[in-house]
UniProtKB/TrEMBL annotation:
<dbReference type="InterPro" id="IPR024930">
    <property type="entry name" value="Skp_dom_sf"/>
</dbReference>
<feature type="region of interest" description="Disordered">
    <location>
        <begin position="211"/>
        <end position="235"/>
    </location>
</feature>
<dbReference type="GO" id="GO:0051082">
    <property type="term" value="F:unfolded protein binding"/>
</dbReference>
<keyword id="KW-0732">Signal</keyword>
<feature type="signal peptide">
    <location>
        <begin position="1"/>
        <end position="32"/>
    </location>
</feature>
<dbReference type="Pfam" id="PF03938">
    <property type="entry name" value="OmpH"/>
</dbReference>
<dbReference type="InterPro" id="IPR005632">
    <property type="entry name" value="Chaperone_Skp"/>
</dbReference>
<protein>
    <submittedName>
        <fullName>Outer membrane chaperone Skp family protein</fullName>
    </submittedName>
</protein>
<feature type="region of interest" description="Disordered">
    <location>
        <begin position="41"/>
        <end position="61"/>
    </location>
</feature>
Length: 235
């Protein structure tokens, strides 16, 4: 990095360090709750916000020593072996659900047509009872299919949470290796020197240390919704 760039980064560090540490302390004091997948956050001591201690980083490789690093968390997840595996499996699940929805829709349309065709020969009370039962079943099936769609969304969030939790100690190592006091989200920065971006470095390390990860079950996500088992279409 040129001398002017280093001085600019030093001034940026002086202005950002206090705010960064304050935000990290505030994050550490917040109560734990389920939410979107964590991105990244490391304290100046090199300890991950998750509380997991950083391990020593391999020595002998020359790296830029800068106070601030940037990281694109979206690219990190999507380009990693873990993210690639997760997105492929989620796409398969979504396509399977779409095919199932089309099959159920065709079946229900056929049942509705059959009921309509039989209406002239049916007792009005019997028709009304059968029609009401059909409507209730359609409502239950729609609710169950919506539940499956929400479960797929929850699965994506679960994959991201698991990945960034596992990657937190590696982020801490990268920060210490570069002598940095903070890693900022590159997506929130308008302009930064590309030399301080560690996204590619993190992708390589995540693939080496974490591999493709392990997928949670969609059924677990469905149960987490508290909605019970899906309703069945007609036999």
């Amino acid at each position: 990095m040129r001398g002017g760039g280093q001085r600019a980064m030093a001034r940026l560090a002086q202005g950002c360090c206090t705010l960064t540490l304050a935000l990290l302390l505030a994050a550490g004091a917040a109560p734990a709750q389920e939410g979107p997948a964590p991105e990244f956050g490391l304290g100046a001591s090199g300890r991950a916000v998750t509380g997991q201690p950083a391990t020593s980083f391999p020595t002998g490789t020359a790296v830029p020593q800068v106070p601030i690093l940037t990281l694109n968390d979206e690219e990190l997840f999507e380009q990693s072996a873990w993210g690639t595996r997760a997105e492929a499996e989620i796409d398969v699940a979504a396509a399977g659900l779409a095919a199932e929805n089309r099959r159920i829709e065709a079946q229900l349309l056929a049942e509705e047509k059959s009921l309509t065709d039989r209406r002239p020969s049916m007792d009005p009370a019997a028709f009304r009872a059968e029609a009401d039962a059909f409507d209730q079943r359609v409502t239950g099936i729609r609710r169950a299919q919506d539940l499956k769609a929400r479960a797929i969304l929850r699965l994506r969030d679960a994959e991201r949470r698991a990945f960034f939790t596992a990657a937190a100690p590696i982020l801490s190592e990268v920060m210490r290796r570069h002598g940095a006091v903070a890693i900022l989200n590159a997506r929130a920065i308008s302009l930064a020197d590309s030399q301080i971006d560690v996204t590619d470095e993190m992708v390589a390390l995540a693939d080496q240390r974490l591999g493709p990860g392990e997928a949670p079950e969609i059924s677990d996500a469905i149960e987490a919704e508290g909605e019970g088992a899906p309703a069945r279409a007609a036999d």
